[in-house]
Design brief:
By secondary structure, this protein is of the alpha/beta class. It has a single domain (3-197), classed as Macrophage Migration Inhibitory Factor (2-Layer Sandwich). 42% of the residues lie in helices and 17% in strands. It has a four-stranded mixed beta sheet, covered by helices on one side. Strands 3-4 form a two-stranded antiparallel sheet. Helix 1 runs antiparallel to helix 2 and helix 3 (136-152) packs across helix 4 (156-168). The protein is elongated. Residues 1-93 form the Tautomerase cis-CaaD-like domain. This is Tautomerase cis-CaaD-like domain-containing protein. It comes from Salinomyces thailandicus.
Length: 198
Amino acid sequence: MPLYEIQHHIPLTVSQKDDLATAITNLHATKFRTPKMFVNVTFTDVSATRTYIGGKPRQGNHVKANVRSGPSRTKEDWEELCKGVMRAWEDVVGKGLPKVRRGDGEVDTSLRSVILLGDIIGGVEAGFMLPEAGGDVEWMRENWESFQRKAAEGNEEFKEMVEEVGKRGLLESSGGEGAALRAQQARLEEMMGWGEYA
């Protein structure tokens, strides 16, 4: 469902890419109760791309994500996710230098930005229509038989997803009474044009 693109100007090893993809997948999946199978992470080497920051040619490492936004996902949720992505980068790649050093062979490995774009308004992934933000549990319930059938037919991704959903208890609740109440309140406000939707 979400698509994270890691734009890096520094070389990243395969194990660093693996670790970053795993960390970002886990962050998003647990933050929003999304099956890991539907979290996409890509890497783009931008070292040969002419990039400008502040109108001057400069390089930087960035994480950009297209996500599903909606009333059940708060500003605090997105800020926590950004901070988690930054921590994952620092754990895997390093904090970076306080400033770019020139001439001594050291490269600034810092992460310049994490940008989340809430612009996924619809789509199909792995043959299933994407749910609205916050509707993952209901969507899984509606499609559960199809997911299980694909797993039984030998589809490895769906086997892993069915197992993950069971282990994480994703169909048992929608994140606790408080989260469910907040989501219902936000949906009501959106339908009625109240609050931030007025």
